[in-house]
Design goal:
The chain is α/β, with parallel strands linked by helices and about 280 residues long. The protein is built from ten helices and ten strands. Helix 5 packs antiparallel against helix 7 and helix 9 runs antiparallel to helix 10.
């Protein structure tokens, strides 16, 4: 039997984009999926738009109280019934062969705990403005090695939309941590990756919508101090967990590289992102 895949959308005031996101999931070449949407007490038409999509694979859960981003992301994963899980933010999209190709990595290599693919950067109208390429090598790779290099240089795992993880790895690693406001997904991918092998696919299988008013835009443009504090906390946490270890120079280099990457990202947002 084909494995069952859960795609989870944590939603909050996403009326402008969520229907496009849902259509991209339901239009996948791989059909044995469920789409779980958990609405976190939206004040706009998000719920009505989700309810207007007629497909038996869609499950809508409406929170009785606002859980915040971390709480809602964890509730999404807790509601998932699949053998494999993908979380996608409510303004991003999947291309038609996304799940098929990422799932193929798991089926060919049972030791894989996480599959990641390249990402197209898109604007509000879904025009491609750039590319986020994952780890330089492709194929079956050591998860701990990628985790360490991600801590030093950049997040090679990327955003939720380009990640597929196994349910067993998620259950071992635990959910998203309340310790982080912005980089909770990076922390999660690090913990999962250290459990086994990561499969890297150098194809653009998803689109990440670049917006100045998104969490990423707010972080880079307005809340850089919080990001720096979270990065220090992330380095300290994973050094203490012991799966990877960074020496003093590597810790310093990590913070310096992140500082200059943020400067470049801010310029990119200024040039390519616009508020809808």
């Amino acid at each position: 039997m084909e494995p069952f895949v859960s795609v989870c959308i944590p939603a909050y005031n996403n009326a402008a984009y969520i229907k496009k996101t849902m259509e991209s999931v339901l239009g996948q070449n791989y059909r044995n999926i469920e789409l779980v949407v958990v609405d976190d007490c939206s004040g706009d038409d998000t719920v009505q738009i989700v309810e207007s999509v007629e497909d038996p694979r869609v499950r809508l859960i409406k929170n009785e109280k606002n859980l915040g981003m971390t709480g809602n992301w964890n509730k999404c994963l807790a509601q998932a019934r699949g053998d494999y899980i993908k979380l996608i933010c409510a303004d991003d999209i999947l291309y038609k062969d996304s799940i098929e190709k990422e799932l193929g990595a798991f089926l060919a290599h049972p030791e894989v705990v996480l599959a990641v693919s390249d990402t197209a950067l898109i604007d509000a109208e879904e025009k491609r403005t750039g590319r986020f390429r994952r780890y330089p090598r492709s194929g079956l790779l050591d998860g701990k090695k990628i985790a360490k290099r991600s801590l030093i240089f950049k997040n090679f795992f990327g955003a939720p939309c380009n990640v597929l993880l196994s349910r067993s790895a998620y259950e071992k690693a635990g959910g998203f941590s309340e310790d982080f406001q912005y980089i909770l997904d990076f922390d999660m991918w690090l913990r999962v990756a250290c459990l086994g092998k990561v499969y890297v696919i150098h194809e653009e299988l998803n689109g990440f919508r670049v917006r100045n008013d998104s969490n990423t835009g707010n972080l880079i443009n307005h809340d850089r101090k919080t990001y720096n504090l979270e990065q220090k906390k992330l380095l300290k946490k994973h050094n203490e967990l012991g799966a990877v270890h960074l020496n003093r120079f590597e810790l310093w280099a990590s913070m310096m590289i992140r500082h200059w990457r943020n400067q470049l990202i801010q310029v990119y947002l200024w040039l390519n992102a616009k508020k809808r």
